[in-house]
Specification:
Radius of gyration: 21 Å
Structural class: alpha/beta
Number of domains: 2
Shape: globular
CATH superfamily of the largest domain: Type I PLP-dependent aspartate aminotransferase-like (Major domain)
Number of strands: 14
Distance between the termini: 24 Å
Bound molecules: pyridoxal-5'-phosphate
CATH topology of the largest domain: Aspartate Aminotransferase, domain 2
Number of helices: 9
Helix content: 25-40%
């Protein structure tokens, strides 16, 4: 039976990415060796790294003066690298979920003031705070563009008086972004890009070198800029896989083209959640709803059917639908690689379940 992979991360990747990576695992670029067993300094792998970094620039329209890096340690390491490299006096954070609050917590471990400009914790993070004020005297404003666990998303670059830092782990490459408004963008690869193990970083070079604290070599963005992401051994296979996804995305027409498909998929599923008498969204305001992670729960009167729906969906090949433990219910992650047909298959399952019960 065909599997429909709705996992939140690591998550579905394009067939193209999987096939090309599988080929390179056996014979990389005609070397007769596996991509797992060649030197990261071989000319074949250096070409992979360079092409991946160039394609990130091309697809996101990264301006001059920015460096693209492939690091390790996940988005979680960026929670501390960002303030370590950029926070001198004061930073502002928007708290929209578990990941945002973890980023905030790391910033607070440094000397400097950290302002939480707003939080949606009062309602289990089921909305995006509005009308908050970002002080003009902060070094940066940090936010999380897509809240993977709670299914909320900030679809437009916020308008604030300072440079921004953003955790785009779960919606990078899902739509256009104005990179020039950011000092730093970071994303773990494993949601919308490639296998886990690589972290994409886009950093404005002129924002660095302003803090007075000493920065350990490996945690200093300048180290990785100066060494083209090869200061130490990079995550070679995840970078190779990420490159394949970038090539796939370019072929599809880039972020503007995929955004249309992402909107279509999200509309299809949210419409069904609204229509179906058994389910409801946990995010009341449609403007706050994530296109990447669609959260839905049983309506209270059908609460006892949760397990039955889960089992029914599994029996039809649906995988990874279980909601995060802090929200419950279901979460359908509709990342770039998720085909429209799989979203339709889920909708069919929801409709059939409604009829049968
Ligand atoms: C998954 C996720 C993280 C955690 O990423 P790691 O690579 O596991 O550290 C952080 N932020 C967001 C928004 C995520 O979706």
């Amino acid at each position: 039976m065909k599997k429909h992979n709705f996992s939140a991360g690591p998550s579905i990747l394009p067939e193209f990415t999987k096939e090309k990576t599988a080929e390179a695992i056996l014979n990389f670029a005609g070397t007769g060796l596996s991509v797992m067993e060649v030197s990261h300094r071989s000319k074949e792998f250096v070409a992979v790294m360079e092409q991946a970094r160039e394609l990130v620039k091309e697809l996101l329209g990264v301006p001059e003066g920015y460096s693209v890096l492939f690091l390790q340690g996940g988005a979680s390491l960026q929670f501390l690298m960002a303030p370590m490299n950029l926070l001198e006096k004061k930073a502002a954070y928007l708290n929209t979920g578990t990941w945002a609050s973890k980023a905030l917590k790391e910033a607070k471990t440094y000397v400097g003031e950290v302002v939480e400009v707003a939080s949606s914790k009062d309602q289990n993070y089921n909305y995006i705070p509005k009308n908050y004020v970002v002080p003009a005297d902060v070094d940066y404003f940090h936010y999380t563009s897509n809240n993977t666990i709670y299914g909320t998303e900030i679809l437009r670059d916020p308008v604030v008086p300072v440079p921004m830092v953003c955790d785009m782990s779960s919606d990078i490459f899902s739509r256009p972004v104005d990179v020039s408004k950011y000092d730093l963008i970071y994303a773990g690869a494993q949601k919308n890009l490639g296998p886990s193990g690589a972290t994409l970083v886009i950093v404005k070079e002129s924002a660095l070198g302003k803090v007075t604290r000493p920065i350990p070599t490996m945690l200093d963005y300048r180290t990785h800029i100066a060494n083209d992401s090869m200061f130490n051994t990079p995550a070679t296979v995840p970078v190779f896989g990420s490159l394949q996804t970038l090539l796939w995305l370019k072929e599809l027409g880039g972020v503007a083209a995929i955004e249309k498909v992402n909107q279509q998929k999200a509309d299809m599923l949210y419409d069904e959640i609204e229509r179906n008498r058994m389910f409801m969204s946990t995010v009341a305001d449609p403007a706050d709803r994530s296109r990447m992670n669609v959260i839905f729960v049983m309506k209270p009167e059908y609460a006892e059917l949760e397990k039955a729906f889960s089992d029914f969906a599994s029996s039809r090949g649906m995988v990874g639908l279980k909601g995060h433990r802090s929200v419950g219910g279901f979460r359908a992650s509709l990342y770039n690689a998720m085909p429209v047909e799989s979203v339709q298959a889920l909708i069919d399952v929801m409709q059939e379940f409604e009829k049968n019960n």
